[in-house]
C-alpha cells in the first residue's frame, strides 16, 4: 500500500497550524493515489498530540525520545533518514517554516530524493509529482514537474491551504523505537528567545488591521492604531511602511514578510500589490478601505469601502467603541 507522510510540527506544547493544513492537502492526495495518510510525530511526552492527530489520519507513527523534546534538525534528520527508506512513502510533506527550511534540504540530499520548497500547491499527474510555486514576488505562479522518483519531499507554505474539519478517523497510533543512539553535542537546543515586551506575532492574530502608504505620514498612524485597539486586533502593514521605518519588519504582511490567516483582515490605505495579497488572501474575511476605486485590493476583498480612510476609520472606531460601551 502506498503511503504519504506528514511531519507534525509542534512547539512549546502546541501543534502548529501548518500541520493541519498539510493534513488537509495530504488527505486529498492520498485519496487520489490510493495511499494511506500517515503522520510522523517526533518528540518526547507527546501522546496527547498523537491522540489528536489520530482523528485526522490513517495512522500516527510516534518516535518518543528525550533528545527530540525540542526541534533539532540533526536529530530529526537521523530519525527520518531511518523511517523513509524503511517505509518508502511516495511523498513526505514538511512545513515551509524555520523548522522545515533547516531540515528538508539536508534530508533530501542525504536520501537523494527530489525536493520542492515553498510550494502553494501540488498534485500527482500519473506517477510524476507536479508542484506550484510563486515567483517574481508572487506575481506569477509556476507549475514545475519533478523528475520521476519513488519518493518526494515537499515543503508547503503556511496558510496556503484552508484546514478542513473531518469526521474523526480514529487512526492507529504506532510507537516506533528511536534510532538515536547518542546525544548530538555539536548542534543542540539552548533556549527559546521570547520577542521583546510589547511585540506580537501577527501570524497568530485573529484580527489584523493593516496599513499601507495611504496613511501618508507617521503622525497619522494613531488613527489606524485606535481602530486596532477598539477591535482587539493587532496592527500590521505593507512593505512601504516598513521601508519608511514606521513599523518593524515583523509587522509586514506579504512575500517578503509574514503570511497570515486571521478571521478578520482590514486593509487600510493598501493598494493591493501581489506581494502583499499573497500574504493575506486566505483570511476568512477581508475588508478594504481605499479611495481609489481601481485599487487591486478590491479584487481580493470580500467588502470594499471606496472613501478617504481619514473619514472612514475614525467614524468606524467611534461606532465600535459606542457599541462596546452600550453593552
Protein architecture, described:
This protein has 327 residues and is of the alpha/beta class. The protein has two domains: 2-175, Rossmann fold; 202-326, TPP-binding domain (Rossmann fold, 3-Layer(aba) Sandwich). Helices cover 28% and strands 26% of the residues. The protein is built from eight helices and 17 strands. The strands form four sheets. A seven-stranded parallel β-sheet has the order 7-11-6-1-4-5-12, sandwiched between helices. A five-stranded parallel β-sheet has the order 14-13-15-16-17. Strands 8-9-10 form a three-stranded antiparallel β-sheet. Strand 4 (35-43), helix 2 and strand 5 form a beta-alpha-beta unit. Helix 3 packs across helix 4. The longest helix is centred in the C-terminal third of the chain and has 18 residues, at 309-326. The radius of gyration is 22 Å and the shape is elongated. The model has no long low-confidence stretch (mean pLDDT 92).
